[in-house]
Amino acid sequence: MFNRLSRRQREEFESHALVHLNTLVRAAVRLTGSREAAEDAVQETYLQAWKYWRTFQPGTNCRAWLFRILFNVIKKTHRANQEHIVVEEQDLANVLRFDPAKHFEVIEVLEAFDRLAEDQRAVLLLIAVEEMSYKEAASALGVPVGTVMSRLNRARTRLRRMLGRAKAGPLAAGAGE
After folding, report:
1. Domain range holding 68?
2. Is 95 part of a structural domain of the chain?
3. pTM of whole model > 0.70?
4. 126-158 b/e with 16+ CB inside 10 Å = b?
5. Does residue 93 sit in the same domain as residue 77?
6. Are residues 32 and 58 in the same domain?
7. Which of 30, 106, 122, 170 has most Cβ atoms within 10 angstroms of its Cβ?
């Protein structure tokens, strides 16, 4: 399999795709809730990326392309295992500007986040945690920018409703625009 690409293509793969390894692992841990499952998903992501590297268009966003593959791998695994996407407390706490005195509030937000629909969790993770633009998130999820915006709006609205708040801090508006 590794001999299918030319030397130049292998070098391009290394310089464009492998630089995102740590970012993909962090996101996969957040999405799967397990380091082991995350590493498996990222390994499969890179195998798929290698296999289809010839289809990657130079000059486009490699990070978003890899995230799209990662989401597809996790969705496939999710369907097979009937698990759901989770976010680690530390990651969402950073988004909320965590204050130790507000620990219980963070737990409440995490529980609410976990009750969001999978598509809403994914878009909120990419925009609020990974700090992707709407365009990058759309590319990663394989949906139009308008869909990202509407899912993000629904996610924020539902979170506010579940938390009984008028605003949910950085999750309320403005992130990713």
Report:
1. 7-81
2. yes
3. no
4. bbbbbebbbebbbbbbebeeebbbebbebbbeb
5. no
6. yes
7. 122
